[in-house]
Specification:
The protein is of the alpha+beta class and about 425 residues long. The strands form 3 sheets. It has a 5-stranded mixed beta barrel with strand order 2-3-7-5-4. A two-stranded antiparallel sheet has the order 8-9. Helix 4 crosses helix 8, helix 5 packs antiparallel against helix 6 and helix 10 runs antiparallel to helix 11. It is globular and about 80 Å long. It starts with 9 loop residues before the first helix and ends with a helix.
């Protein structure tokens, strides 16, 4: 009789190995460079295998809507591998943003019509938000309620008004929309009723809707395609039944932001780990003064420090996938680790690492681009600390006739702290 308890992390590891094998064969650096130069910005054949055959998008879609209903760590394992390979794909926009919003806010008819198509890889969808962009709308860098960031009145953004036939028309624009130039469905955040008394709602816009103009933007990270979407009296359908105020919409966006942060943390960890592995391989082969540069003590110390950062980031990412409440802090840790590791990778590759043609630049631009698009890191940390009450002000009772003193600041952490991961010495030994 086997009394061994099942390993809850085994399915995620198995999925990760499968995706790594696929991307290793189909998405090397040369293929990535070729894919980003196409009009779509990704390889459609690879996307069909990833989303259709492997069912990556449908991992967390409920079973009654054609998905697998699996927990978030399994999708995070897929994202870690796509980050490792820098594979350009609509996975993050579709599975990380659009699908959970439709599942959370959509009517039964909308869920039944959209989720099965997305789970089969037949529908690419994304979220389009105006103004300051995703970090604010998703509640990552500040509270997103009220939803005044969506515009309305004189503030720009996207406005929604009733059409003569009772439907909705959108007017305005949203920039830096992930995969916005190829998505067959856009979830657009817009303000209804003007600015002072309006509310924020999400609308469904078809990719071929009249009055919609989409332009792919030149981005620092070409592996993360972005677009500017313009709406000129574009027909749209309200996501949901329209009952209640905008509190439900901003709460759903914040919940999706927490989930997205966990996926991004895993992806950034994969990027940092791959950049480090490629750098270690390079310093083993590159010789100077008749010996590999990896044998020099200064290089070994730098690589050992980077190894510790990657291990700590992976620990934070895995924790966030299982306990998403700490995902914003995990994302900050992983984005910072990716930025540090990829910058050091450029340095340790020497002169060749500074050329745009070298693959080290792809990893550095992914890390820098994500910090700009989903951060910056210091705002992620500041907002997470505010929400957790990490530096809450506590009044101090006066003693006797002594005048009241200034409020004290509580330095007691209110959130779990991920322990540092050892094993730095392993890298030093590997370079001998």
């Amino acid at each position: 009789m086997n009394d061994t308890a099942p390993d809850p992390g085994a399915p995620a590891r198995e999925i990760g190995r499968t995706v790594r094998a696929l991307l290793g064969a189909e998405s090397g650096p040369d293929r990535v460079r070729g894919a980003v130069l196409t009009p779509d910005g990704y390889d459609p054949a690879l996307w069909r295998r990833l989303a259709g055959e492997l069912g990556a998008v449908g991992l967390t879609v409920p079973e009654d809507h054609g998905g697998l209903g699996r927990p978030l760590p399994e999708l995070a394992a897929v994202c870690e591998e796509t980050g490792r390979a820098l594979a350009p794909s609509p996975l993050l926009a579709t599975a990380g943003l659009a699908v959970p919003l439709v599942d959370a806010l959509g009517t039964p008819g909308q869920r039944a019509g959209l989720l099965p198509r997305a789970a089969r890889g037949e529908l690419i969808a994304t979220l389009a938000v105006p103004g300051p962009g995703l970090p604010v709308a998703l509640g990552l860098t500040r509270d997103n309620a009220p939803g005044d960031w969506a515009g309305g009145g004189r503030t720009g953004g996207v406005q929604a008004r009733r059409a003569p036939d009772g439907g909705w028309l959108l007017y305005g624009e949203a920039t830096r929309v992930l995969d916005g130039h190829t998505a067959g469905l856009l979830l657009v955040a817009a303000r209804t009723g003007g600015y002072p008394r309006g509310r924020t709602a999400l609308f469904l816009v078809r990719g071929d809707a009249p009055g919609l103009t989409r332009t792919r933007l030149t981005a620092l990270d070409e592996t993360r395609p972005q677009a500017r979407t313009e709406f000129r009296d574009t027909p749209a359908d309200l996501l949901g039944d329209g009952s209640g105020d905008d509190t439900g919409v901003t709460a759903a966006l914040a919940a999706v932001g927490t989930r997205l942060a966990a996926l991004l943390a895993a992806e950034a960890t994969g990027t940092a780990a791959s950049a480090l592995e490629r750098t270690v391989e390079y310093v083993r082969r590159r010789e100077q003064f008749g010996r590999p540069i990896g044998s020099f003590q200064a290089v070994r110390h730098r690589l050992a420090d980077l190894h510790v950062r990657v291990r700590a980031a992976r620990s934070a990412a895995y924790y966030a996938a299982r306990e998403p409440d700490g995902a914003a802090l995990a994302l900050a840790e992983c984005l910072e680790a990716a930025r540090t590791v990829t910058a050091e990778a450029v340095q340790l590759h020497g002169g060749i690492g500074f050329t745009w043609e070298h693959e080290a630049q792809l990893y550095f631009k992914r890390a820098a681009g994500d910090d700009i698009l989903f951060g910056p890191v210091h705002l992620l940390r500041a907002h997470a600390a505010d929400r957790a009450g990490l530096f809450a002000v506590e009044p101090v009772e006066p003693v006797g006739s002594v005048e009241p003193v200034a409020p004290a600041v509580s330095l007691t952490p209110a959130v779990p702290v991920t322990p540092a991961v050892p094993e730095a010495a392993a890298y030093g030994e590997a370079l001998r």
